[in-house]
Amino acid sequence: MDPVKVETEKGHELVRKAILAQIEEGRLLPGQKLPSVVDLSTSFGVGRSTIREALSALKATGWIQVKHGGGTFVHQVLPSSQSSSLDPFKESKNVKELLEVRIWLESGSAAYAAERRNEEDLKKLKQIMAHMEQALAANDTRMSEQADIEFHLAVAAASHNELLNTLMSSLACRLTETMGKTRQLWFFKNQSSAALLLQEHQSIFDAISAQDSRLASQLIQSHLLKAADVLNQGILQD
């Protein structure tokens, strides 16, 4: 008998399904505000990053919407259960393909972010940069990975293009699964990588803050191309 690989669901997927079930069963109604990330984290007994990943997936598939400064709400117009599974990135198992999509998507989002960012966007990015510094000082890999993901999602949000932001949110779960792999490659190639990654994110932030759209686009493209370059050298086999 041939062995069968059995994969258990990740925490964020279980949380996503639980919240989705409450919406479909009418326990959470269209327009209703969801509890805060902190309260949901306590309720489900998981970390805040797990809650954020679950909410990102629900937002990407049209079940919830996030109002800046106002909280998270069940979407007024709900998609069908069938449409909720149509995540354009869900079926991709290839890290290289995901990086290629990110290069084109994020270079554009960085350019628009530089043009359109407001003080609230800059405040959010500064907070994430502070988390990156804390993670580096504590040598906390998990915290560092989550801050990295949040930074790229915050850049997309700063573009103030709803479709672009939704596409990046659709990538959130896949980013979580592949971020560890790409960072391992990066660290393997460059011994001082943790500090260098922080410096690169700082440079991207500075370009966005200075409203230099061309530089912001170039920097984030270069940042992602380095991971793609390692893949092309065959260090990671998909």
TrEMBL record:
One of its GO terms (molecular function) is DNA binding. It holds the Pfam family FCD. This is GntR domain protein. The keyword Chaperone does not apply. Residues 9-77 form the HTH gntR-type domain. Keywords: DNA-binding, Transcription, Transcription regulation. InterPro entries: GntR_C, TF_FadR/GntR_C, Tscrpt_reg_HTH_GntR, WH-like_DNA-bd_sf, WH_DNA-bd_sf. Signal peptide: none annotated. PANTHER family: TRANSCRIPTIONAL REGULATOR, GNTR FAMILY (PTHR43537), UXU OPERON TRANSCRIPTIONAL REGULATOR (PTHR43537:SF5). SMART domains: FCD, HTH_GNTR. The lineage of its organism: Bacteria, Bacillati, Bacillota, Bacilli, Bacillales.
